[in-house]
Design brief:
The strands form four sheets. An eight-stranded mixed sheet has the order 10-9-13-12-11-14-15-18, with helices on both faces. The protein is elongated. The chain is built from 17 helices and 18 strands. It starts with a strand and ends in a 6-residue tail after the last helix. It has two domains: 214 residues, Alpha-Beta Complex (Maf protein), CATH 3.90.950.20; 225 residues, HUPs (Rossmann fold, 3-Layer(aba) Sandwich), CATH 3.40.50.620. With 477 residues, it is of the alpha/beta class. Strand 6 and strand 7 form a beta hairpin. It is 36% helix and 21% strand.
Length: 477
């Protein structure tokens, strides 16, 4: 549908970068500064090329030298400049400056903004592929509090010049979407990739704040990144804020538990506590140097059919956050992909906590047909690194037998492979467990809560039970 600008200009629904810059330039009230560090002035260049840049650009700068940057925005104690705090300092300084220098009495309708990025593009040896922080601090109505959209990107192109072009395109998309799609954040998110693809530039963290986004739950925005194929995995902290996976996982020992957590049960907590202690004892690592990740895949989140119920997702997220856990949402159906993802950030030990059914699935070669090397290729990734599997037992519903590595049956084609890893202590039984907890079934508990029945309360952590009751979680509508 055409979009009118000042009554006589038309723009297509998927607007070209040139026309986006033009529309911003022709809006007499949008006015602000561009501060771009590390990759050239790739975004503002598009506005200079469009007609009437003086209507939009108050100032543009690139404090490329670190000493100059410190002199303007404040010293960085750790001497790290491609960081979220640096980006926020840049935007706050620039909007403060424009508020001082531009009279509100003379320009009562101005919508001030500061766009900023701090980026490290690919190095000449192509050892570091490049990444950066991009953000906009802006107003949608005059004199209101500022809104912010802040995101982290990974740069995947093989030349710095190509990465600069993609950054410039995404910068224009961000400014345009911030002004013309802020009332629909999901649509805003999609428009960040106009004329781009995740193969070129990947958004792995995004946060929205300010009056325009007062009803936005940033965890849902994280979920959208994965659902839209903009990234493979996102994380949010116990606070509920989205966090950069690289910051959470960098050089850490990592223990991860995958599940639906619908809801979190005593079994989930027992698996976490017992495997964590085993992991720390096995590798002689400290808790402070170990990150525990509770992972939900898109498949885990699909309650019925192919759709993800957002309320249901938020219920699960609220419960995990209330227990103080960091949550990861991914599209990694196979575990070797999880390990490969973690290995980007650390060379320290990795632990995978799982139940018997999951382990049996891992050793089923039908799940690896898309790989040219099949299950051997997957296991080459999974166990080539310092990885252990911690196996929580299960009870056979028909016989009552306790299933562990001692008696479980895997696919005949992979039994030799399974025996090899078991004998080399890469698959370790969790033996310290309460047998009665093996009767807990999260699906049955969910059905009981959904139908308003009682009797499920003691099978969940006390905090979880309290929250479910207070907020009427998982109840039938």
């Amino acid at each position: 549908m055409p979009i009118n600008v000042q009554g006589d200009k038309e723009f297509d629904s998927v607007t070209s970068i040139q026309n986006k810059a033009l529309r911003i330039n022709l809006n007499e009230n949008i006015y602000g500064t561009f501060a771009e560090i590390g990759a050239g002035q790739e975004t503002v260049r598009n506005f200079f090329r469009a007609p009437n840049p003086t209507g939009t650009i108050a100032k543009t700068m690139s404090a490329y030298d670190k000493d100059f940057s410190d002199a303007i925005y404040g010293a960085e104690p750790a001497k790290r400049y491609v960081t979220e705090p640096r980006l926020k300092a840049m935007m706050a300084y620039e909007t403060g400056l424009i508020e001082k220098r531009i009279s509100r009495l003379k320009h009562p309708n101005k919508l001030f903004f500061s766009f900023a990025n701090t980026v490290a593009t690919i190095d000449w040896a192509k050892k570091y592929k490049g990444h950066g922080w991009i953000g906009i601090r802006y107003q949608t109505t005059p004199k209101e509090e500022y809104n912010e959209i802040i995101m982290h990107v990974q740069l995947h192109e093989n030349k710095a010049a190509q990465q600069q072009i993609s950054l410039g395109i995404m910068g224009v998309n961000l400014i345009y979407a911030a002004y013309y799609h802020h009332d629909d954040p999901k649509t805003l998110l999609k428009h960040l990739y106009d004329h781009l693809s995740p193969d070129k530039i990947e958004i792995d963290t995004i946060n929205f704040t300010g009056p325009a986004f007062k009803d936005v739950d940033n965890r849902l925005m994280s979920l959208q990144l994965v659902r839209n194929g903009m990234t493979n995995a996102v994380m949010f902290a116990p606070s509920g804020n989205n966090v950069l996976p690289a910051n959470v996982l960098y050089k850490k020992n990592i223990l991860t538990l995958r599940g639906s957590f619908r809801p979190v049960t005593n079994v989930n907590i027992s698996m976490y506590e017992k495997s964590l202690q085993m992991f720390m004892d096995e590798h002689k690592v400290e808790r402070a140097a170990t990150e525990v990740i509770f992972e939900m895949t898109l498949f885990n989140l699909k309650a019925e059919g192919d759709e993800i119920a957002e309320k249901d997702f938020l219920n699960r997220a609220d419960l995990l956050c209330a227990l103080g856990h960091t949550v990861m949402i991914s599209n990694f159906q196979q575990y070797y992909k999880v390990v490969d993802y973690f290995a980007q950030f650390t060379s320290e030990p990795i632990g995978l906590t799982m139940g018997v059914t999951t382990l049996i699935d891992i050793f089923d070669d039908k799940y690896y047909k898309e790989l040219s090397g099949g299950i051997l290729e997957a296991f080459g990734i999974l166990f080539a690194r310092n990885v252990n599997i911690y196996l929580y037992p299960a009870k056979d519903e028909e016989t009552g037998e306790i299933l562990s590595t001692k008696n479980l049956r895997v696919n005949n084609n992979t039994r030799g492979l399974y025996n090899f890893f078991k004998q080399n202590d890469r698959i370790i039984d969790i033996t310290d467990f309460e047998e009665q907890s093996l009767n807990i079934n999260s699906r049955k508990i969910h059905e009981m809560i959904h139908e308003g029945k009682s009797g499920w309360e003691k099978m969940l952590p006390e905090t979880v039970t309290k929250l479910i009751k207070e907020n009427q979680m998982f109840r039938k509508k």
